[in-house]
Amino acid sequence: MDIPDILKVADEVVFVKTGEHLDYLQEAILRGTLQGQKYWKIAEETHASEGHVRDVGSKLWKILSEGLGEEITKANFRAKIDKGSVYQNNNVSSPLVHQTITVNNNVNICPETVRSPTSPSNSQQTSSQTYIDLSDAPEIFRFYDRTPQLATLENWIICDRTRLIALLGINGIGKTTLSLRLIEQIKTHFDYIIYRSLRFSPTLNATLTNLLQIFPQQADIPQNIETQISQLLNYLRQYRCLIILDDVQMLFCSGQLAGQYKTGYEDYQLFFKLIAEVNHNSCLLIDSWEKPREVAKLERGNNYVQTLVLCSLGLAAKEILKDRKLSDEETWESLIDTYQGNPLWLELTASTIQDLFCGSVSDFLQCDEPILDESLQGQLDQQFQRLTQQELAVMIQLAKESELVALPDILKIVQLSVSDLVNAMRSLGMRLLLDAKEEDKTTFFSLNTVMKEYVKNRYMR
Predict the structure, then answer these.
(1) 163, 266, 369, 397: least CB-packed within 10 angstroms?
(2) What whole-number distance in Å separates Cα of residue 333 and Cα of residue 225?
(3) Which residues are registered as beta bridge partners of 164?
């Protein structure tokens, strides 16, 4: 049995004895015990005193001992689990039965127990069902291995109780796919899971109204933004919720430095800030091409804010080429490196290889420069149309460079003031368009091969 399964059994035993589910600290104590952690370490990770953790742990072991008819302690819990004696002696008839997970556009009968962690003391008891609304989500047909990233997100959300997570990555890297796969992995921990795309730039008023309609209404939905946010935060305390907002970059201006909100959309900045700072029991995951400025500020001093930048699929991208039935497998790694392990870029390039090179990756790689078909260039157009003139000037200069270049060297060449150059470089970094490498306490910059070829094709001919 793995840790989630063990926690489910413990939760059922506690529920039978007390009528309540495991709370956050009890679950952390069990998880920490299974991972061999001492009380002081569990206390450190849960921001509680060691004495309080010991008191809660002592009561928990007593409840489990009474429920299982056998003495359970922190010292022997792992051994009892490994021997299977806990399960063999557990003659309690669980009150939890197979429950229905309701999805907005599908209804699935879930064969596993759905557990809702206990909300803070000022909240109502959570629902025994998980409501999942994916009506706005694209259908995902294939998922290529992102095990480390999934593990990181799950740990942040389930163990660390992170309130705000920014999942960042260039167009096509797989942010949406990863987010939807994550739902499958952690759905039993939530009462509500909601996915919404901001691709059409809805106002915050429209987004909040849409979200509030999901929950059981005790009053009319207010029109005032502040009251809407307050009402949503109450729901986030009352229930354990995972809300995913995709395409957040569509809230930002084109032709301005990264992360600057369009006129009329500035309220999102306050919304994200409150999600991070106000105590609640839920998580907001935002997907974007650009890093919101408030996230960059918040994560420096807030343990409940995290950023994950999604990069190359690595060798897992070979599955894409295998699906496309390309030949010359010994050259696939080179193709993956050239196209940065970006799933969309590789899909589009694989089509070109099939159509024009009879599926031969080796023949395709004989070309002196990376080939960017019109579809791939169109994808990059969407991002480059957002750049300022200063940012574009930097990209053009970096495309000319054959070696890594430091900021002072760029300043000597590009016709920009120090202030404009620094702002442009920081903005390009927030857009994830630069490769940076630190050597001898100096940061050097470059463009990857695809970006360099794109800039040459579009702006230097």
Answers:
(1) 369
(2) 50
(3) 284, 305
